[in-house]
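Progress note, sequence design subtask.
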């Protein structure tokens, strides 16, 4: 979890909305084409069968009439043909009947048969066969033409759907980018006037209204914090001066300690208000990172081990001794960074104080390249802090100790001002780990 930004972006493996809409449109077009093709095929097949049945029926009617009057066979009629379908070999009455024969022999078939008895029971059956091969060949050509036309329409519709989906996706990405900037702390980010009057435009307008409301509330909160801290600064200074006039003793020590705590709280609130208002500007110079870190740890007056890890192959980590000792000179050059040393010391000091106050000894600070790692061996950071980052006046789990919850908030704000990355995590074997990585 980064202390600089709590924004979570979707993973790089996500599927673009443009592709989803284009795929949906293509699938819809393919289903529509398949449905139309199936409908045309079924209707045409039924029409071919109905016309063949009518032709066979009329042919057997005419042939039966001629056979009855002259005794000759016309219209291609035959008596008791051997390939007659079984359902027509022994009709129960003298009426005309038809049957479809799917068999194919050479260029003949499938066929439609019509049959009728020439006389009473046991008389020969007069049958006529209508060849449907040409009509069915035409149906197959129609199916191929429909398939080719559907593929052509699908090939033309897919790019259009992709382009149209891209217009919607582009507008949604604009709204998403604005929301991400607001989440990252840019309260002046706005989507602006949206095209059209559809749902995307409503979402963009809603995001802008939300940003306006959020900005007003945060400005009110920040102004209140700054005003309270500024107004308290003078009376707290007076309290501290008045405490110095008390006679030495336990009461005087206790009162001075409480007044100093109140003064530190006011100074922290003022610093947070300046960071929130964007009034702070870093003054960057090239400094030895290990020396600045050792100085910051030393000023805390807390028993902290500072270790300088070599940037490459060599003797490995080197113990810098207690908080009041500087790193020992080694053959490896110490890392040099360009940053604001005062703000860097403030970050390191806050992390070290937080580790001692809410964690447990031993507390170790490791310097390597452009990275500073502060680790304690206490209960670790609470899940809420790892998920959302530090929040003012919020100390997380009770086992982490008491406090105002401002130290990590100030460290996060100063890190953001330096363009550094401050991440919070817990070690596998226990203890909180804060990692500060300065920019190149």
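Output:
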């Amino acid at each position: 979890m980064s202390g600089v930004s709590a924004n979570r972006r979707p993973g790089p493996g996500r599927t673009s909305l443009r592709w989803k809409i284009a795929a949906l449109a293509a699938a819809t077009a393919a289903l529509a084409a398949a449905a139309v093709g199936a409908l045309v095929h079924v209707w045409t097949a039924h029409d071919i069968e109905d016309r063949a049945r009518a032709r066979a029926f009329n042919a057997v009617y005419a042939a039966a009439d001629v056979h009855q009057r002259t005794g000759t066979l016309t219209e291609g009629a035959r008596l008791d043909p051997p390939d007659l379908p079984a359902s027509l070999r022994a009709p129960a009455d003298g009426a005309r009947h038809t049957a479809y024969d799917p068999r194919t022999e050479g260029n003949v078939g499938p066929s439609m048969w019509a049959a009728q008895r020439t006389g009473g029971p046991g008389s020969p059956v007069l049958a006529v066969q209508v060849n449907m091969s040409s009509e069915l060949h035409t149906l197959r050509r129609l199916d191929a033409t429909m398939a080719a036309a559907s593929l052509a329409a699908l090939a033309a519709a897919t790019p259009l759907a992709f382009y149209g989906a891209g217009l919607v996706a582009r507008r949604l990405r604009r709204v998403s980018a604005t929301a991400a900037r607001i989440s990252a702390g840019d309260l002046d980010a706005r989507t602006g006037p949206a095209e059209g009057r559809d749902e995307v435009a409503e979402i963009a307008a809603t995001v802008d209204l939300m940003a306006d409301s959020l900005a007003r509330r945060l400005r009110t909160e920040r102004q209140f914090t700054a005003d309270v801290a500024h107004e308290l600064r003078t009376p707290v200074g007076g309290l501290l001066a008045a405490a110095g006039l008390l006679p030495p003793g336990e009461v005087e020590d206790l009162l001075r300690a409480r007044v100093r705590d109140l003064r530190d709280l006011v100074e922290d609130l003022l610093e947070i208000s300046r960071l929130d208002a964007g009034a702070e500007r870093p003054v960057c110079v090239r400094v030895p990172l290990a020396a600045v870190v050792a100085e910051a740890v030393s000023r805390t007056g807390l028993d902290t081990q500072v270790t300088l890890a070599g940037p490459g192959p060599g003797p490995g980590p080197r113990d810098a001794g207690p908080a009041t000792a500087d790193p020992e000179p080694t053959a490896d050059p110490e890392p040099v960074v360009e940053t604001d040393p005062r703000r860097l010391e403030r970050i390191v000091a806050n992390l070290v104080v937080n580790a001692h106050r809410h964690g447990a000894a031993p507390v170790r600070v490791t310097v390597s390249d452009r990275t500073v790692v502060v680790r304690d061996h206490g209960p670790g950071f609470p899940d809420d802090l790892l998920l959302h980052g530090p929040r003012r006046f919020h100390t997380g789990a009770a086992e982490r100790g008491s406090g105002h919850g401002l130290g990590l908030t100030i460290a996060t704000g100063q890190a953001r001002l330096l363009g550094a990355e401050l991440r919070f995590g817990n070690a596998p074997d226990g203890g909180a780990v804060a990692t500060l990585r300065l920019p190149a």
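The domain at 199-277 is CATH 1.10.287.130 (Helix Hairpins). Work on this subtask will continue into the next period as scheduled.
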